[in-house]
Amino acid sequence: MTSPDELRELARRCRVHIVNMVHRAQAGHPGGSLSEIDLLVALYKTTLRVRPSDPRWEDRDRFILSKGHASPGMYAILAEMGFISEEDLTSYRVLGGICQGHVDMKWCPGVDFSAGSLGMGLSFGLGAAIAGRLEESERQVYVMLGDGELQEGSVWEAAMAAAHHELGNLNVILDRNRIQNDDFCEAQMRMFDIPAKWKAFGWNVKEIDGHNMEEIVDGMQFLSTTNSGPSILIAHTVKGHGVSFMADNPAFHGAAPNDEQYALAMQELGEVGA
Amino acid sequence: MTKMAATRDGYGEALLELANNPKVVVLEADLGKSTKSLHFRKAHPERTVSCGIGEQNMLLIGAGLAASGYIPFASTFAIFTERAFEQMRNGVARPNLAVHVCGSHGGTHTGTDGSSAQSIEDLAIYRTLPNVIVMNPSDVVSTKQLTIQLADKASPSYMRTARNKTPVLYEGRENEIEIGKGIVLKEGSDVAIIACGVMVSEALKAAESLQAEGIQASVVDMHTLKPLDGPLIDNLVLTCGALVTAEDHNVIGGLGGAVAEHLTANTYAPLERVGVKDRFGESGQSDEMLEVMEISAPFIAAAAKRAIARKA
Fold this sequence. Notes:
CATH superfamily of chain A: Thiamin diphosphate (ThDP)-binding fold, Pyr/PP domains
Distance between the termini of chain A: 31 Å
CATH class of the largest domain in chain B: Alpha Beta
Largest interface: A-B, 30 and 30 residues
Mean pLDDT of chain A: 97
CATH class of chain A: Alpha Beta
Number of domains of chain A: 1
Order of helices and strands of chain B: EHEHHEHEHHEHEHEEEEHEEHEHEHH
Number of domains of chain B: 2
Oligomer: heterodimer
């Protein structure tokens, strides 16, 4: 079992990859990648049953990044896991590169869903979960949603259907970073009591601090072992976490740092002299 | 007396026959009684997924199943599939996941439910999506055969079926039916009428009336709009020199659009397109709607004469 300290160091390296990718591409989505990355690191290292050398292994657990714009975070952990190489990360948003702007199952090993359009991943996860049940497999399906994404009505079609079909193998990780494209969620579309909404839809609900590694590891355990109906882990995060000027700043939802900002970010992430 | 049956029943029969394949699953959005997937549900409830009245969710559940090795058949009314167009585009067509969507109650032929239920743009919108097979079969037998063939395809599909009965054309001729291959139902050398769906039997009626006036028309059932049977069209251009398309669909973007696109890049012949003239329908019986929309047999026959008159 990977220790929390090891997970924290891995998350730090992933943050470096994320900032490198968006700086190199001068485009992309650093904010949501930095908010989700502690969750992804814990999921992949402690919970997800996958084989980097055999990414299409049929009985693997599925991970669906529904907020597919936060692809740098996913590419970073895929590289650290060995699904892709660190060299591949330089192909982010580059013509012909496997690291497409939004994660794409046709392009990148280890990606189970072609995302890019919000509100779609949970429904796809339902299909994968139903398939697992039909095959009497114990594999689990994990879907990461963004909080702004909850404004898509189709998410609630899926939430209702998951409870109706009693899909205990279906799990959501909600990256509750409170910021969406244009502004704070509170300004764009208030969502009020999110845990109460999911409870009312028939889901098992747990809330954690999405940057506290001990709590995250606990949360992943909750998801993988709670199989009486679908479960959601609501992770309270900070958009842009780990880089001071990106943190809690709507401007860095979808913007790349300039060279000066990049140098500062690398310093803050412990890459002194980078 | 011509035997009559609704194409949607062919879909239901095909699903039952496909049930032998354990990978076939059926998705419903509270319209299984109408689209005829209910027979499968009764026989195989464990492989039938109720999605409630939630079409967007249904198509992506299909995508998740297809990505996990299953062969999902999802149905609802043609018009309601359109609500999930972006799901079809981004979640099904783009990753090329073989989800088979059946939109029943297509076209103005749907009748008294009125314009909100009469999809006249479904064939056009799905035809614009890469990877998607688009079909509109004409009778119950061909619908069954084409549905069965879909289970072996590695690409997604959209198939429109009709609510109301149309003449049975292919009893005992099942082996002539193949996805992507138009069927020549009548051979003539003056003009070729290319039709799909409920308009195929109207085209045959039109050809009969033309024959009484000494005009020999070919009639083709172009049940597959995509991939379009280009070699057959090229052959009709050579043998007839004038074409008519006939569809219960907007004249924009459907069968007429597909044939016109083909002609611009190949050997040219005058083309008259019979279809809904870029307007919405209303409540009426099927036969009344074809009259009101000016797409019934007499309108096809008139279009045939116009096409012939335009020959160089």
